[in-house]
Amino acid sequence: MGFSVSSKIKLNMPVVKQLDRAKQQALEQTGDALLTQVKNTQVMPFDTGNLQNENTFEDCAQSWNGTVKIVSSTPYARRLYFHPEYNFSRKENIAAGGKWFSPWLEGGTRQNFLQSGICEIIQKGSRTLIYLSDIRDWLKSVTSAEHYYIGKLDNKQDRSIGVYSLKQSGTPTRAIGGESTYDTISVSLLIHYTDNARETEEFARRLYEMLYGIKKVEIKEHKIYIIELLTEEPVDVGTDDKGCV
């Protein structure tokens, strides 16, 4: 005697999308946590701080596809990484040396950090209200640049805006006696425009004034009540090797 059973499965697509977004955010947070831990453990070579502080960053451009990268963009980073036999100065970083990611790789003393970290973030839920990718996408709707990036600007294309995480000192904001109803995120915007200094300055000032004038805005269904600018005006960072500002 046989039985035939039929079933119909209907997926709740909004919830599926929400779960996918949660996984992406957890991945981005885990990458940021790894980068922070690498810097805090003082294992990277440190002379002027250019390699560790200015040119090592998290690239989330492919986080939607399950990949984030920790990128060091200086031309000498690869040479230093793969030559641990070098005599590294430990005046600034007490554990400076080559292969500085070794503790977090298989067989290292911190090999379980990534797996346990992303699981913990997913279980607790996302604590940060908004992400760099959200800010990048929002900027597309309110500015006239042609290219938008998270992390390193791709081949330094003209009329580009890069969105970077801005590291600040101090202790995290914590609510007393319960869950906080808000959070903050610090970002830095890098404008790579043209070789015309006046045109670049005008664009930067328009962007600055636009951000300054915003009191309330909604980004990815999150209500942003205040955008606080940390400098009195756009900061000139000079020109690149192409002469672009």
Give a short summary of the structure:
32% of the residues lie in helices and 12% in strands.
From the alpha carbons, calculate the radius of gyration and give it in angstroms. Answer: 22 Å
Q: What sequence of helices (H) and strands (E) makes up the elements?
A: HHEEHHHEEEHEE
Number of strands: 7
- What is the global morphology? globular
Helix content: 25-40%
Distance between the termini: 80 Å
State the helix count.
6
Largest sheet: 3 strands, mixed
Strands of the biggest beta sheet: in what spatial order? Answer: 3-4-5
Strand content: 5-15%
Given as residue ranges, the uncertain stretches (5+ residues, pLDDT < 50) are none
- Structural class, from helix and strand content? alpha+beta
What's the overall average pLDDT, rounded? 81
